[in-house]
Amino acid sequence: MAVAGLQLSAPSAHGQGQVLLSSAKSSLFSAAPLRFSLPASGRESFSRKQLVVFARRLSGLEEAMRIKRERESQQLTPKVKRRPPLRRGRVSPELPVPDHIPRPPYVGSSELPEIASEHQIPGSQGIADMRAACELAARVLHSAGKLVRPSITTNEIDKAVHQMIIDAGAYPSPLGYGGFPKSVCTSVNECMCHGIPDSRQLQSGDIINIDVTVYLNGYHGDTSKTFLCGDVSDAIKQLVKVTEECLERGIAVCKDGASFKKIGKRISEHAEKYGYGVVERFVGHGVGTVFHSEPLILHHRNDQSGCMVEGQTFTIEPILTMGSIECKTWPDNWTTLTADGSPAAQFEHTILITRTGAEILTIS
């Protein structure tokens, strides 16, 4: 969503465009299974005790290889000076939207909308309207990024984004989505996504993901980017750079007839080169007249069925971390942080599937 992604866990809807599915832990590196065979001669004479001893040795070898891979991944990931943990600031009241601006159907209800089952295939006129909504979202995000500097508050960024959107005759999609109280998501440092703007001032060395979605002429345009604030360490700059590259690589495999699982494979391959984790619990989604719909776009390695169709619109929005891919959510039911406090970065585009590739609708 300007709500960064959808949460996967168990069968009911929960939090910001989030659908629950169960999610298995992933390791950054996987090794092929070890195989062995007994000698052709004397095979029958091998005792059960000898086989147990052999199996234990084999298990020990696998464990040694696992430890070796973990150490190698730690060496790939540069060390980062730990910053003070993120704390909630004061959240100001939601901003008003003029009565003449059309609202999405979920506004006015605190209930989180169900994820729509139908895929978003807008048609020729719908695509034109989608382009307009996505162009506006990209323009607002670009302007919001220029505001990022030490001492500005995320609440000030929210006010600026809100004003730009309503000045264009559009509605800020996050506002009122399942009770979300602001017009944009601002996720700082270890916040994976769905950060609620507040009175906290940005500090030099911070990173911030700004997630903008607008509702214009009946269509949503959804995009986000992670920005650097002041003097950011080289290690975190690399995380941000690689995350954007992962988005680009995910988009590059998209075209009519391509399988959805290729997206997660390509993203994971690139993230693993640098020892980064790819968050599994938040995913991309279909977007159009509906804010969040099928298909859900998994960013990690997966066996997801289904193929892309020409004319389809959806988001890709990977989140990478420098540590754990597990998360914890604040009592506001939105702000989601890495479980170990390690930095996280995210980038997002809305794309249109074409016969030969994908058109990025939210490019600025």
TrEMBL record:
EC numbers: 3.4.11.18
UniProt lineage: Eukaryota, Viridiplantae, Streptophyta, Embryophyta, Tracheophyta
Cofactor binding note of this UniProt entry: Binds 2 divalent metal cations per subunit. Has a high-affinity and a low affinity metal-binding site. The true nature of the physiological cofactor is under debate. The enzyme is active with cobalt, zinc, manganese or divalent iron ions. Most likely, methionine aminopeptidases function as mononuclear Fe(2+)-metalloproteases under physiological conditions, and the catalytically relevant metal-binding site has been assigned to the histidine-containing high-affinity site.
Reaction catalysis annotation: Release of N-terminal amino acids, preferentially methionine, from peptides and arylamides
Residues making up the signal peptide according to the UniProt record: none
UniProt GO cellular component terms: chloroplast
Cofactor field: Co(2+); Zn(2+); Mn(2+); Fe(2+)
Catalytic class of the enzyme: hydrolase
Molecular functions (GO terms): initiator methionyl aminopeptidase activity; metal ion binding; metalloaminopeptidase activity
Start and end residues of each Peptidase M24 domain: 129-354
Annotated stretches, region: Disordered: 69-104
Record carries keyword Phosphoprotein: no
Binding site residues for substrate: H194, H292
Keywords for this protein: Aminopeptidase, Hydrolase, Metal-binding, Protease, Transit peptide
Family: Belongs to the peptidase M24A family. Methionine aminopeptidase type 1 subfamily.
Species: Prunus avium (Cherry)
Xref: InterPro entries: Creatinase/aminopeptidase-like, Pept_M24, Pept_M24_MAP, Pept_M24A_MAP1
Name this protein carries in UniProt: Methionine aminopeptidase
Annotated residues for binding of a divalent metal cation 2: D222, H285, E317, E348
